[in-house]
Structure formats: C-alpha cells, structure tokens
Design brief:
Layout: H1 2-16, H2 19-43, H3 45-48, H4 62-67, H5 84-90, H6 109-120
Length: 150
C-alpha cells in the first residue's frame, strides 16, 4: 500500500511540474496576448473598460470578467457554450448582441472562434488587479442624499 501511494504521489508531482505542461501555459498566454487582448482593446474596452463599465461589466481585468456584470460572470473557463461573452458576440441572444450596432460591425467569425478557443483552453489571462465598478450610477449622484451638507 505504501509503495502504491508513493508511486501515485511521484506521478502527480511529475505531471504537475512537467515542462510540456508549462510550455502549454506559455502558449495559452501568448495566444491571449497576440489575439485576445488586442481584440478586447479594439472592440470592447470603449464600453467595458476602465473608463466605462456598461452593464457593470469590465473586460480590462481578469477580475472583471470573473465577477461579471449585471447578468453574472461573462466567461465560464473551459465552456464557451455557457459563456455570456460568446452568446453576446455570436448574436445567438438578441437581447445581448455585442458590439452594439452603433459601435461598429459585428466580430468576424475568426474573431469569434479565437474567443471560443481561448475560453475552451481555460481563459488564461495574466492581467491582475481588482475591477472596481462604482456602485452609484451617474444619474443617482445628483440625488440630494449624495450632495455635501451645506
């Protein structure tokens, strides 16, 4: 029994720290940096970035898509079919179609496939930081309760 446990632990250790798996993570990160980040910057940050968080969703930080917006997490790592981001860019949900018509043309099939591949591979995202969305909407800031005492 002791020998079997030792072998299992050794195999687990070897598989966890093997160079091919680490290289795979590096490839996933390179895919994100070369294909996904530029796409997000070009097509998504205008409405879902550091300056504006439409639907309370930020896509400029990993913590933003993990927490998600008003509809929940935008991405389910490993499962593009359950990811709101894929439903939005594919047009399969008419209420969630992104980008909006006034923000430019829809994503190309190649761009949609890149997003699906990235999510299927686990949505590796090296960006860090906390995505903070101000809980007080701009229109509510003019309410008397949020004004300084005079």
């Amino acid at each position: 029994m002791y020998r079997l446990t030792s072998i299992a632990l050794l195999l687990t250790f070897l598989l966890q720290y093997s160079p091919p798996l680490q290289a795979d993570e590096a490839e996933k990160q390179a895919f994100f940096e070369s294909r996904i980040r530029p796409l997000l910057i070009d097509r998504c940050y205008q409405c879902h970035g550091p300056d504006e968080a439409s639907g309370r969703l930020r896509l400029d930080l990993k913590s933003g898509w993990e927490r998600g917006g008003e509809r929940g997490p935008a991405i389910v790592p490993g499962n593009p079919a359950d990811s709101l981001l894929i439903r939005a860019v594919s047009g399969s949900d008419p209420e969630l179609s992104m980008p909006p018509k006034d923000s430019g043309p829809p994503l190309t099939p190649a761009q949609q496939e890149d997003l699906a591949i990235w999510i299927r591979q686990g949505a590796v995202d090296p960006r860090s930081g906390q995505a903070v969305v101000n809980p007080i909407e701009v229109s509510a800031r003019t309410h008397w309760a949020f004004q300084p005492i005079q």
